[in-house]
Design goal:
This protein has 5 helices and 8 strands, in the order H-H-H-H-H-E-E-E-E-E-E-E-E. By secondary structure, it is an alpha+beta fold. The protein has 2 domains: 69 residues, 434 Repressor (Amino-terminal Domain); 87 residues, Ribbon (Umud Fragment, subunit A). An 8-stranded mixed sheet has the order 2-1-3-4-8-5-6-7, with helices on one face. The longest helix is centred in the N-terminal third of the chain and has 12 residues. The mean pLDDT is 81.
């Protein structure tokens, strides 16, 4: 039998200990029982606000954050969010800042965390991180040095800017779909479009860019 991810096993055991069905737990949390089932089988990883409510509903203690296999560098950031939810003096929560596109979720990241970026609670999520942009393929929309907010849980919509990897090269590009053909478009006219993404390409979408969170108007 395949071993469940730590969070999935933790939630499943806590729900059963509380004598709740997936349906009754979902009703309390305002979601579907199929979403609870996905969490318990490792097919979904909840956003931070939902995770906090889930832990509180199942009376799972904050110390069990260690059990959900968060990298050491991210644990203080997540712990800060839990304390904030319980009535911290400040409503701000921190997201990790990376210098490279993350493969998977921030919790799975192997890249070095460059620092933290304070966000409002409604923006905070375990599926999100802040990326320091180094290339200029999306200029002038996104400039080198900009900090952008990336959500790894979203599916891209037409004309979204995505973080992706194609044939081993990580890049930011605009996502355009024409029928079954995916076009990766650069905003910078000096860069050619990649047309099309073919079945032979090693292509992965690693997140959707939600907004620029910091931009310097001159070098600092």
């Amino acid at each position: 039998m395949k071993k469940l991810p730590p969070l999935a096993e933790l939630v499943r055991r806590a729900r059963r200990r509380a004598a709740l069905t997936q349906f009754s737990l979902a009703k309390r949390l305002g979601c579907t029982d199929s979403y609870i089932a996905k969490i318990e089988t490792g097919k979904a990883y909840p956003a931070t606000d939902f995770l906090i409510r889930l832990f509180q509903q199942l009376k799972i203690e904050e110390r069990h954050l260690v059990d959900v296999a968060l990298p050491q560098a991210l644990r203080p950031i997540v712990e800060k969010a839990f304390r904030s939810a319980g009535g911290s003096e400040t409503p701000w929560r921190a997201l990790p800042v990376f210098g490279e596109i993350v493969a998977g979720t921030p919790a799975q990241a192997k890249q070095e965390v460059l620092g933290e970026f304070e966000m409002l609670p409604e923006t905070w999520s375990l599926s999100r991180y802040v990326l320091r942009v180094s290339g200029d393929s999306m200029a002038p929309t996104i400039q080198p040095g900009d900090l952008v907010l990336v959500d790894t849980s979203l599916r891209p919509r037409q004309n979204d800017i995505i973080a992706c990897v194609i044939n081993g090269e990580a890049t930011l590009k605009r996502y355009i779909k024409r029928g079954t053909v995916i076009l990766l478009k650069a905003d910078n006219p000096a860069f050619p479009d990649i047309i099309p993404v073919t079945a032979t390409d090693d292509f992965r979408i690693e997140g959707v860019i939600l907004k620029i969170v910091e931009r310097n108007l001159r070098p600092v």
